[in-house]
Design a protein that fits this description.
mainly alpha; two-stranded antiparallel ribbon
Length: about 280
């Protein structure tokens, strides 16, 4: 009996790890397809912009961090008020560009608030509040209401952003508070700047070693390209082609010589810094 229990626990640990390392499939939530193409109304993200400008530390190593332990009380309160403000927005009444900036900012603001509330932690996966026996991290928890509908981080990413916009560059603006993740941008996204920042963020991440590196001449990519292969082209050549589109000349030349991906890597360490 004891042996069976041990085997079950070992199997459960292995199964849980494999599940936590797999991204949910994108599955359209039709409720959020509604938008108003004629709308000229702008959502105010200035308070989030102020928070980011004060607290995002742009590192010389190309990785942006936050000093979570020392975020000023005033900024914590403003972050809370900003998220509450987003909750009062009827997002279905806005044009698509405003909606895209809204959902990305909401995802990132909720993530930052989660880390601040649960700090000190070494990885966001320690914020283990998702429902389900094998669930991991905070992504499955209904954290917020938009138009009175409960929403989780998984909902925002996999049921709204990915299936509605069908743009792989969206992954470069979703921050999971980890070193291996694309950077949290030091400015807020808006309907006016989101298109340009999508492009810049793709180039920023792809030309950094945590996205593309080499091990003895073998191509090693961020696990982002493994988890979301369906968004980047599925097979190795298609993923490499996507990366090549945003690569600097030196990286682009090197990628021309490769047809396959040898391995994937990711650093889940918290993106914490110090002023």
């Amino acid at each position: 009996m004891a042996r069976h229990i041990i085997l079950f626990l070992c199997w459960g640990a292995i199964f849980s790890t494999s599940i936590s390392e797999a991204a949910p499939k994108k599955q359209l939530w039709e409720r959020w397809l509604e938008y108003s193409p004629e709308s000229q109304t702008i959502i105010d993200h200035q308070s989030w912009n102020t928070f980011l400008s004060r607290n995002v530390l742009v590192g010389r190593d190309g990785i942006n961090r936050i000093d979570y332990a020392n975020v000023p009380d005033a900024d914590r309160k403003n972050l809370k008020y900003y998220i509450e403000y987003l909750g009062a927005v009827t997002i279905s009444r806005y044009r698509r560009s405003e909606q895209l900036a809204y959902w990305l900012n909401l995802y990132n603001a909720l993530t930052v608030r989660l880390v601040i509330k649960n700090y000190p932690i070494q990885t966001i996966k320690e914020v283990d509040i998702s429902p389900g026996f094998f669930a991991d991290g905070p992504w499955g928890k209904k954290l917020f209401k938009v138009e009175d509908v409960p929403i989780s981080l998984n909902d925002i990413e996999h049921r709204i952003l990915r299936p509605i916009w069908q743009d792989p560059r969206i992954h470069y603006l979703i921050n999971c508070a980890s070193i291996g993740c694309p950077n949290l941008q030091p400015i807020a996204l808006t309907g006016r700047n989101v298109s340009a920042i999508l492009e810049a963020a793709a180039r920023e991440f792809i030309n950094h070693p945590r996205a593309v590196s080499y091990d003895g001449g073998r191509l090693v990519l961020s696990k982002l390209y493994q988890w979301y292969a369906v968004d980047f082209g599925e097979d190795d050549e298609s993923i490499i082609f996507h990366i090549t589109q945003f690569a600097n000349p030196r990286l682009k030349e090197r990628l021309k010589q490769l047809k396959s991906i040898a391995d994937f890597d990711y650093d889940w360490s918290l993106n914490k810094g110090q002023l």
